[in-house]
Description:
Elements: E1 9-10, E2 33-34, E3 45-52, E4 61-73, E5 76-87, E6 90-98, E7 105-108, H1 113-120, E8 142-143, E9 150-151, E10 162-173, E11 176-186, E12 190-195, E13 204-208, E14 218-228, H2 245-248, E15 259-264, E16 271-277, E17 286-294, E18 306-313, E19 319-322, H3 323-326, E20 332-334, E21 338-344, E22 349-360, E23 372-380, H4 384-387, E24 389-391, H5 399-409, H6 415-427, E25 431-433, H7 450-460, H8 466-478
Antiparallel strand pairs: 1-10, 2-8, 3-4, 3-14, 4-5, 5-6, 6-7, 9-10, 10-11, 11-12, 12-13, 13-14, 15-16, 16-17, 17-21, 18-19, 18-20, 18-22, 22-23, 24-25
Amino acid sequence: MKTALMLSVLMIFIGFTGMAFAQNSAGVDVDGSWYLGEGLKDGDYFEYTLCEIDLNACSPIELKIWIKGEIQNVSETLWNAQILVIDGDKTIKGSWGLGKIVPTPITFDDDLADYAVAFKSSIAWLSSYATSNENDRIHGPQDFRSISWGSLGPVGGGLESHLVPSRTESVILPNGPVDAIVLGWYNDNDNEIWIVDEFPFPVKALTFAGINSDSVPVMFEFDLVNSEEGIVMDPFSSIDETIQQSQLLQCDTDFFDYVSDRVSTSSYSMMVQYNYSPVSPVNGCDMDWKIYFYSKFNEIEILDQVNYDIWIVDENDNKKYSYAESIGKEKLFNEFGQVEHVLPVKESGLIRYAIFVHGLGPEDDVNEEFEGYAIVEIPVEKNLLLENSEVDPELAIPSWIKNNAGWWADGQIDDNAFVSGIQFLINEKILQIHHIGHDVVPDPELAIPSWIKNNAGWWADGQIDDNAFVSGIKYLIENGIVAIS
Length: 485
């Protein structure tokens, strides 16, 4: 699950490594100290690649931060941080209010909440040990020569359970090579974070979950890929947010009311507790699944090292769809026996889901004695917006239309050529749009949003289906950007 490190590293060890640190009581032999946010100021700009264990099981994202200035929150002055997140096919813009003493998110836009939590648990994790509060003798600025910056918790008593400055190392940053201090804790794995004196945030990290296992997942990993100072103009002004299909179809994305049950697998090898939301799913929207795998002998013992998948099956339990295969994997693996997935719902009617367990153990040595599956039958409602805008399955879309969409997305043809193709589909009744704004007069001043181009490119490449693409066309017509001739 490790992501590729994006910084080229030239190691220069001074005196000792992390393994030998316990024999040395002097700390790293450099002057200076550091705290999270050191030197942070208006106009600073940062780009990171980031993965965090609780954010889509450490799937990597791009996180871009621009310090626009200051904002007032009641009686507190915060940094006004403008944020851009690229998470798979989603592009999200918004803002965080970062604290002045501890620059972690205090206020944030709702759609950036999960990313704010991931930032605090990874890039800003060192705020638990080093802040600008010089009156705090425990959590104030930390010296590089210190033996320890603090204990990691009640595990053991040696330095392997402490955050320690272990060595200096030259790293190549976007603006050139600099000397970095490597902080770490060294148990069964080397968990390390790189910081640079007078730079506000760490520049690199690779840490692992604190469990005893043959396959320990990454807890968080990040790399600084760009940084600039004195940025005055909004660097995100020309970037459009991606409008997701869930917005076009008016899907409920707040999952709070769940249907829950606990059932045995078909082979009685274990108990599976499932929780899904919303209570009444709608096709074209998403469902949130929380699944726990329990021992059949102990109702509170959660199993670990579970190899599993989520299928849709027919009435004879034959597999029709595999979530793992849809994301390019043979199966899914979870170390802790408790998982959460947000899955698209692509059908309506009574849908039969199968939580399929391949077995227990490491991914490359599965004990199939525990193989089995639990069936969950869920009634899924039809989405009326999809019903009112669809592609006739009896009429094939000409290949030149998809070619046009791809060329338009790449800027090879103009808007008029693309729109003429859409009008052809409507006139030939291949694309059927009912009761949506035939009386809307198009506004020639309205430009086609860039996310429509993204959709067109994905549709041309086969990454989204016809109805998802049609939802975007419906948006153009409803909002008077394109007219039906």
